[in-house]
Automatic annotation (TrEMBL):
Site note Activates thiol group during catalysis, residues: 230
Domain annotation FHA: ranges: 62-124
Keywords annotated in UniProt: Glycolysis, NAD, Nucleotide-binding, Oxidoreductase
Lineage: Eukaryota, Viridiplantae, Chlorophyta, core chlorophytes, Trebouxiophyceae
InterPro entries, A to Z: FHA_dom, GlycerAld/Erythrose_P_DH, GlycerAld_3-P_DH_AS, GlycerAld_3-P_DH_cat, GlycerAld_3-P_DH_NAD(P)-bd, Glyceraldehyde-3-P_DH_1, NAD(P)-bd_dom_sf
Database matches in SMART domains: Gp_dh_N (SM00846)
Protein name: Glyceraldehyde-3-phosphate dehydrogenase
């Protein structure tokens, strides 16, 4: 069982937290800006209650594209009206959506025909355009387009969707130049008047940033190194094959633990400027289907006991970051988090501490499902800000 509290953070200078067998009263820093962090989620709930429908298109029906659709179907005020993928026919789109080896069979009726994709009898238009400018998003009524091909990740390239009739584009990957938002961390900086193309960052940044934010606000991060032990993804090879840019990345995914680069830690500096230049990291790709884990080893500016750090993270998971940040003291393993929709789940009993200012923190994340839910949450936040 993954523990998730119901809220214990109040306007008092202390909060109580249990760690191990000890019950202690700990002073926690409650950021005066913390209540505003819930603004996006409150706006999204208000939008849902208003009955206004957010119409979405998805370009690229791979792992993230399909799971974004599943996540959107769970939101009563979000409607996916169109899908574009030039490489698969509608009957195969229906098959791939319904049957998922990791997250299970979709509980609903799914039919693909020459007219489009039908889910529980409701039609979703389907296109097969190679050029994003040719996708008739405007005709389909898609105001928000999820760019999940992994190809059109810059403002210039993603702007093709705007030319096709979309009003906003959400890139489901890091971007070299598009503003980057991580829900629960910096979504309040979204400017509806000028931010037409945005990035939802990466799954790993979505895990690391909430953790780093809470630790930095309460104890200060002088510097840190992150390692993500990351599940296999579609870019890897089933057996050894050519990979000119990353020779190790071309080795068989099922047979190896593969060291790899990642920009996820450095990207935290884009969503939390106060940590810019203080974090970097790497990845180990491992032969598991889903769920990854972040190891953040950090030097703190304010000495703290491990239980104090855990208390701050637990309080955040029950307060301003509830639904984004999770917390558990159970003896969990990776499969316990398959289809967990939170961005980052702190594993209190897995971390270690060398000194009051040197600590290793561990946090789990479903790199597919958690991230896909944040894409939908970001869309809802953007719509509420209009």
């Amino acid at each position: 069982m993954v523990l998730q509290g119901t809220g214990m953070l109040h306007a008092t200078p202390k909060t109580f937290a249990r760690f191990g067998s000890s019950l202690v009263a700990l002073p926690l820093k409650v950021s005066r800006a913390s209540p505003s962090k819930n603004v996006g989620r409150r706006q999204a709930r208000a939008l849902a209650s208003s009955g206004e429908t957010i119409r979405v298109g998805i370009n690229g029906f791979g792992r993230i594209g399909r799971l974004v659709l599943r996540a959107a179907l769970a939101k009563p005020n979000v409607e996916v009206v169109a899908i574009n993928d030039p490489f698969i026919e509608n009957d195969y789109i229906a098959y791939m959506f319904k049957y998922d080896s990791t997250h299970g069979v979709f509980k609903g009726d799914v039919v693909g025909s020459s007219e489009g994709l039908f889910i529980n009898g409701k039609k979703i238009a389907s296109y097969s355009k190679m050029n994003p400018e040719e996708i008739p998003w405007g005709e389909a009524g898609a105001d928000y387009v999820v760019e999940s091909t992994g190809v059109f990740t810059t403002i210039d390239k993603a702007n093709s969707h705007i030319k096709g009739g979309a009003k906003k584009v959400i890139i489901s990957a890091p971007s070299a130049d598009a503003p980057m938002f991580v829900m629960g961390v910096n979504e309040e900086k979204y400017d509806a008047k000028k931010d037409n193309i945005v990035s939802n960052a990466s799954c790993t940044t979505n895990c690391l940033a909430p953790l780093a934010k809470v630790v930095n606000e309460n104890f200060g991060i002088v510097e840190g190194l992150m390692t993500t032990v990351h599940a296999t993804t579609a870019t890897q090879k089933t057996v050894d094959g050519p990979s000119k840019k990353d020779w190790r990345g071309g080795r068989g995914a099922a047979a190896n633990i593969i060291p790899s680069s990642t920009g996820a830690a450095k990207a935290v500096g884009k969503v939390l400027p106060e940590l810019n230049g203080k974090l970097t990291g790497m990845a180990f790709r491992v032969p598991t289907a889903d769920v990854s884990v972040v190891d953040l080893t950090a030097r703190l500016s304010k000495p703290a006991e491990y239980k104090e750090i855990m208390a701050a993270l637990k309080a955040a998971s029950e307060g301003p970051m509830k639904g984004i940040l999770g917390y558990t003291e159970d003896a969990v393993v990776s499969t316990d988090f398959i289809t967990d929709d939170r961005s980052s789940i702190i594993d209190a009993t897995a971390g270690i501490q060398l000194s009051p200012t040197f600590v290793k923190l561990v946090s789990w994340y479903d790199n597919e499902w958690g991230y896909s839910n944040r894409v939908v949450d970001l869309i809802m936040h953007m719509a509420a800000a209009e």
